[in-house]
Amino acid sequence: MASLLAVDLGVRTGLALYGRDGKLRWYRSRNFGTIQRLRRGVSAVLDGISDIILLVIEGGGELAEIWEREAARRSVPVIKINAELWRKEFLYPREQRSGAEAKQKSGRMARRVIIWSGVRKPTSLRHDTAEAILAGLWGVMDVGWLKSLPPELRR
Asked: How far apart are CA 42 and CA 54, in angstroms?
């Protein structure tokens, strides 16, 4: 098996793990609380994924550097993206007029990915987790694990 981990950066971090079949394996939100605890926690997150071969990070700055350093220690390649990249693939321009509207539409799309992947449905879905799910979906398409969006996920 091989997996791709997508991370929506923040002290409250969204995480989404995908398999080579392009389907979501799991998703979660992790509140590290502080940058210092995030520094210690990133190692544990990556240690818990034995078959990771790619890390997709949405965002940049100091938090991205923490993830990049840990990935480099494991020889895991990193792709850094911003939300606009995956949003233009999965959302209509009218759905991106405001950040709040984009987050709402992203949540709906992420729920469709969850259903399509056959993983446990959430009672609530935080926007950081939804964005990690969509960054990961962009990632599996970018590396060719999915050639195109399945009909269930198309706009």
From this structure: 15
| 135, 4 contact by CB (below 8 A) | no
Top CATH class of 3-142 equals alpha beta
Pairing of strands 52-58, 3-8: parallel
Residue ranges per domain, the chain? 3-142
CB neighbours of 28 closer than 8 A, spacing ≥ 6? Answer: 14, 15, 129
Enter the pTM of the model.
0.94
Burial class (CB in 10 A: 0-12, 13-18, 19+), 96: middle
> 28-54, pLDDT tens digit by residue?
999 999 999 999 999 999 999 999 999
What one-character DSSP code corresponds to residue 60? -
